[in-house]
Amino acid sequence: MTLSDLAARGANIAVVLFVASSTLGVGLSLTPAQILAPLKDIRVVSLALVANFVAAPLVAFGLWRLLALDEPLGIGLLLCGLAAGAPFLIKLAEFAKADAGLTVGLMALLMITTVAYVPIVLPIFLKGSEVDPLAIASSLVVLMLIPLAIGLFCRKQAPTVAARIRPAIGLLSTVSMVLVVVLTIVANFREVLSVYGTRGILAAIVYTAVCAGIGWGLVFFSTTARPVLALGTAQRNAAAAFVVAGQNFDDPRVTVMITVVLIAEFTMLIPFARFLARRA
């Protein structure tokens, strides 16, 4: 077994730990009312949906055409554009010291919408494509909604226990996040290099920056929602994108492009979140 194979297996395990611990930690920290309350702001919710399910896919499709990407790379970028509600948003918002309740509520809304949205919209962009929404929903429910529900239940029934274990869960989330970033880069280093010279890396960088700008600009009226929407629009749901790619496309360059976008987001949005924290 090669180093890249070991890194890939380690990255898969780290992703599971990261997603589950992040959502569990949120459940241990907040109440259902704190998560649902920010979603009562119709303006913010509406603009979040527009940013993630109208602007983000159109930007991806536009960059595919503008940069004349090879079709597999363009498809990978488009799949990222269609899939929103990434669990990594929780950690980014924590780095940015953004509103935790709004972050989790928005992430859940985007995640659930993605499950219903992608099967409808993908065939419009790519004729003949089919998506099984259950395949996307099952992984998201197991890794995100169930740990969140467990955390919320524990906080309500045993707040003292929740307070004691919350720091350990937070540490696990941070360590597993670092492992995801490092192991993903190691596992896909050669594949990422294969994209060099195809404008795929440029597309991933520009895409991440433009989406962050869209999210930031749309909610100019709210200093609370601005960082959450900027990070939430730029951070795409790679897990859902990988599921759709595996169901529909045989060319490995589709998943390679998703990986390139994921790495671009890691390397750009973590410093951006830190910058937002200092600015705040």
Automatic annotation (TrEMBL):
Major localisation: membrane
Going by the UniProt record, its keywords in alphabetical order are:
Membrane, Transmembrane, Transmembrane helix
- In terms of superkingdom, the source organism counts as Bacteria
> What does the record say about its membrane topology?
Multi-pass membrane protein
InterPro entries attached here?
Answer: BilAc:Na_symport/Acr3, Bilac:Na_transpt, Na+/solute_symporter_sf
Cross-referenced Pfam families, in alphabetical order?
Answer: SBF (PF01758)
Q: Which residues form a coiled coil?
A: none
The subcellular location is:
Membrane
Name the UniProt record assigns to this protein:
Transporter
Q: Which organism is it from?
A: Mycolicibacterium llatzerense
Lineage of source species: Bacteria, Bacillati, Actinomycetota, Actinomycetes, Mycobacteriales
